[in-house]
Design goal:
heterodimer; A: about 170 residues; mainly alpha; Four Helix Bundle (Hemerythrin (Met), subunit A); 2 domains; 7 helices; B: about 100 residues; Helix Hairpins; 3 helices; about 0% strand
């Protein structure tokens, strides 16, 4: 087993495990910490795909900024534990899990039927796509307009968040 | 070498996990985190295709998805705080003002 396979299957297993922890833990703080672990696993997987820039951004933006915001709000609200998941196996839970499982089966069926046409990895090409240099050039040439729109989006989000969280609207 | 289908399989499982969270959990913050999980699984698909096809556009899309996710998290959490201030709960069963 090569190092790449070892990393993929190890990180994938930990990623799925921590993903399951996110949706099964009663305590929101535990869920949030599992999600941080999941984000780190995904960052590792991006590295196996030679996407260094995305991997670093994943850790800085997701694990760093967004999850700190989540933990901050959870602790600010001082939420009590939800009632145990096994308390009552309501119809909604069964239907919800069933629907999601059906979705998974559908996606897997499509994957199976299309698996022959998947491209093979060209190692040299893959290494040259994920670098900061290539992404930076693309970002400030081809994707300059979306990039500028993004700043508008973030400004709107900041204004909206401040306004919504204000105590009184006056 | 790990084939592309394994990455897509992992991504599908993660997406399903997030979907289960959205459909079954009642805590608004955990539902929100499940949505982040789903966004991330899609990002994994995009990066996998981008890397296998040698096309950087997929990674650019991930970059923009992350920006939108950051904005969404900020606004969504502000809404949750505002609701909590009004109703003292984040249980989605008790927040039913717009339900018919």
């Amino acid at each position: 087993m090569t190092l790449e396979q070892l990393m993929f299957y190890g990180l994938g297993a930990v990623g799925i495990g921590s993903g399951l922890l996110v949706v099964t833990r009663r305590n929101p703080v535990m869920s949030a910490l599992s999600l941080v672990l999941n984000f780190f696993c995904l960052a590792g997987l991006y590295l196996t795909l030679n996407a260094q820039f995305i991997a670093v951004i994943q850790i800085i933006v997701y694990a760093g900024a967004i999850m700190v915001l989540f933990l901050f709000v959870i602790m600010l609200l001082n939420l009590r534990d939800e009632r145990a998941l096994s308390d009552r196996l309501s119809a909604r839970k069964i239907i919800g899990a069933g629907l999601a499982f059906g979705l998974l089966l559908q996606v897997l069926y499509i994957l199976m039927s299309a698996a022959d046409g998947f491209p093979q990895k060209d190692e040299a090409l893959a290494v040259s796509t994920g670098t900061v240099e290539v992404i930076g050039v693309q970002l400030f040439t081809t994707f300059l307009f979306p990039f500028e729109i993004t700043s508008l989006l973030l400004t709107a989000a900041i204004v909206g968040a401040v306004l919504l969280a204000k105590k009184k609207l006056d | 070498m790990v084939p592309l289908s394994h990455y897509l399989f992992l991504s599908a499982v993660l997406f399903m996990t997030g979907a289960v969270g959205v459909l079954t959990r009642r805590n608004a913050i955990i539902v929100f985190m499940s949505i982040e999980l789903m966004l991330n699984s899609v990002n994994l698909t995009l990066v996998a295709f981008s890397s296998f096809l040698g096309n950087v556009t997929g990674q650019m899309l991930v970059f923009f998805v992350m920006t939108v996710a950051a904005a969404e998290a900020a606004v969504g959490l502000a809404i949750i705080i505002a609701i909590y201030r009004r109703k003292q709960t984040v249980n989605l069963d008790e927040i039913n003002l717009l339900k018919w």
